[in-house]
Design brief:
By secondary structure, the protein is an alpha+beta fold. It is built from four helices and eleven strands, in the order βαββββαββααββββ. The protein has an eleven-stranded antiparallel β-sheet. A hairpin with a 2-residue loop joins strand 9 and strand 10. The C terminus is likely disordered.
Length: about 250
């Protein structure tokens, strides 16, 4: 068991942690594909416990023991086939069309916040790819050196964070404005990018069932090498007392 604090830098909404980052923290010590599920909104600047029990990595509140999230190894069967990525220039042009640049969607989010400075936030702002099916979005992400480890590579939890919001933007491009929270993310990091390496982030909608939306998302090198991919489950938000918890059976508490 170790102590862990989600610093305010890693926020999604103003009062809770970035879902992709927290999922990445739960998955970073798992070899191969992993599934992480968020059971509650991850609190910021609070002492949390991070441990493993019977193969399940768990993030719990130090104050009351409440389960915040859990991660476990996955066979990767749910990971979707990855479409051909756009070229670097086409991804750059798609990113320039991101609604996050002109509208206050999530302006302070660690992943997609347009008001975050380089090296403070990731600024992964995806937009519709020209000529692609509605909802297939992309952008270029060049990881800042401030996020790199001593080896010059970007930690896997930051890669998971970079994969977070594009899945939301895929559904935004397809259906228009609506609120949604990341509930579950199954992903794998095949190669961690280097600081300063131009990467292509792409996401696409998969299916919608009631208030559950699924999306695929992938990270590529500039030449099209697949670096990471993920399957996401998003919960479309209703009134606060009606927002369902995401508790898939793939991760046991």
């Amino acid at each position: 068991m170790s102590k862990f604090v989600i610093a305010r830098q890693f926020c999604g909404p103003s009062t809770s942690g970035n879902g992709g980052y927290v999922c990445g923290v739960l998955a970073k010590d798992i070899d191969g594909p992993a599934t992480a599920v968020l059971r509650a909104r991850p609190p910021l600047d609070e002492q949390l416990d991070l441990g493993v029990h019977e193969g399940v990595f768990q993030l719990t509140s130090e104050a009351d023991g409440a389960l915040i999230g859990a991660g476990v190894a996955s066979d990767g069967a749910i990971l979707p086939p990855v479409p051909e990525p756009p070229g670097l220039q086409a991804a750059r042009e798609a990113g320039a069309r991101s609604p996050g640049l002109t509208e206050r969607i999530h302006p302070i989010c660690f992943t997609c916040g347009s008001e975050r400075a380089e090296g403070d936030g990731l600024r992964v702002l995806a937009g519709q790819i020209e000529g692609a099916p509605a909802g297939r979005v992309a952008c270029v992400w060049t990881p800042h050196p401030d996020f790199a480890g001593a080896d010059g590579l970007i930690p896997s939890e930051i890669v998971w964070a970079a994969l977070d919001c594009p899945g939301f933007f895929a559904w935004l491009a397809r259906e228009g404005h609506h609120g949604a929270l990341l509930g579950t993310m199954t992903g794998e990091v095949l190669r961690r990018p280097r600081a300063g390496e131009d990467c292509i982030v792409m996401a696409w909608p998969l299916a919608r069932e009631g208030r559950k939306e699924t999306a695929g998302v992938a990270l590529f090198g500039a030449g099209g090498e697949l670096l990471a991919r993920a399957h996401q489950v998003w919960i479309v938000m209703g009134p606060p007392d009606q927002t369902p918890a995401a508790t898939p059976a793939a991760v046991s508490a």
